[in-house]
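sanity check this fold:
=====
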Amino acid sequence: MHAKVIAADRATAFLGSVNLTDSAYTDNLEIGAVIYNPSAVANIVNPFETLMRSQDGPLIRMS
């Protein structure tokens, strides 16, 4: 699976396989889940925040 994550805040996140393409909506079998558990969301979000804090990290925070 090539998972995607959208974190609304530190309490809610979406985790799924959906690509934003026409074939994802018409031809593929995709799945996703909304997670409302702050502890579980923290386990998803924390590694990304670590990468955004690093001076040499591959991610930047978008405002």
Q: What stands out?
A: The chain has a mean pLDDT of 83.
